[in-house]
Write a structure and sequence with these properties.
The chain is mostly helical. Helix 1 packs parallel to helix 3, helix 4 crosses helix 7 and helix 6 crosses helix 7. The longest helix has about 90 residues.
């Protein structure tokens, strides 16, 4: 397993177009050395999409930054488990800011490696990073730079169930002080009805914002899945085109061989006919 891990570290550091040939070479070398299990494991390593490669490159370039993103994911999961709405809103905002910045950095790093990322692929990188936040297994592979495929997107950390008996946390002291200042700044307003209306309006606005974020995440998930499927089809088409090209080359070779054989056959027929004619002439004498 250690050898496979070392090969994976090497392979997932290569650009996607270099991956397959290098993987096949490692697998062939392992088979030749009699290490069949290792060869099988290496051959099973999946070629990364361009977005996955860019995400891996990002983790390799700055391990500290990658670790901070994983800490943010832990904080988000904890906020979901404890139903801490105030913390969740703050961390969610931080998540959007950090991921957008990291995706931009991934695009820059890819450019340094001679690989341009389109805006669509950059958005796929963002989706991958969101998936990493919610998936500890994918996070472990990503932080080592050996993520093989995009993790399933988790909208709103839905898979993180609240702790039994958990209730929403009360607002922090700072938030409570800010709420208490409202009547002091506008003493002429009614003490109760207006703040309640404002609270309901703010809560409704927060719910609408959360729904909009979830809808956006679902749309990004659908787009990422579609693009992943498109890339897989493009790769399959490329393989089929390569096979077709090889078949055409083989046909040309066989056609040339057949034409040469036809020529030799015609020459042999002429020589045989000439020999038979000579034999008849000699017998007539």
């Amino acid at each position: 397993m250690a050898d496979i891990d070392a090969v994976a570290v090497e392979l997932y550091g290569l650009r996607p177009e270099e991956f397959t040939a290098a993987r096949d070479a490692h697998a062939a070398a392992a088979r030749k050395a009699g290490r069949r299990a290792e060869a099988k494991g290496i051959a099973a390593l999946r070629k990364p999409t361009l977005a996955v490669w860019a995400a891996n490159r990002l983790a390799r370039a700055d391990a500290d930054q990658a670790g901070r993103l994983l800490e943010l994911g832990e904080g988000l999961r904890e906020a979901h488990r404890t139903l801490s709405g105030e913390e969740l809103r703050g961390l969610s905002h931080q998540q959007h800011v950090v991921i957008a910045a990291m995706a931009g950095e991934a695009r820059r790093l890819a450019g340094e490696a001679g690989q341009d990322l389109s805006p669509a692929v950059q958005r796929e990188v963002e989706q991958i990073l969101r998936g990493v936040l919610a998936d500890p297994e994918a996070a472990g592979a990503w932080v080592r730079g050996v993520l093989a495929k995009a993790p399933p997107p988790a909208v709103g950390f839905a898979e993180v169930a609240p702790e039994p008996g958990a209730a929403p946390r009360p607002p922090t002291a700072k938030a409570q002080r800010e709420r208490e200042r409202e009547p002091e700044r506008e003493p002429e307003r009614e003490p109760e009805p207006k703040p309640k209306a404002d609270t309901r309006e703010a809560e409704r606005a927060r719910r609408e914002a959360d729904l909009a974020e979830e809808a956006l995440a679902r749309a990004e998930t659908e787009r990422a899945k579609a693009r992943t499927g498109l890339e897989a089809l493009d790769e399959e088409i490329g393989l089929l085109e390569a096979r077709l090209e090889r078949a055409r080359e083989e046909r040309e070779r066989l056609t040339a061989a057949a034409e040469a054989a036809d020529g030799r056959h015609r020459e042999a027929v002429r020589e045989a006919e000439a020999a038979r004619a000579a034999a008849r002439k000699a017998g007539g004498r």
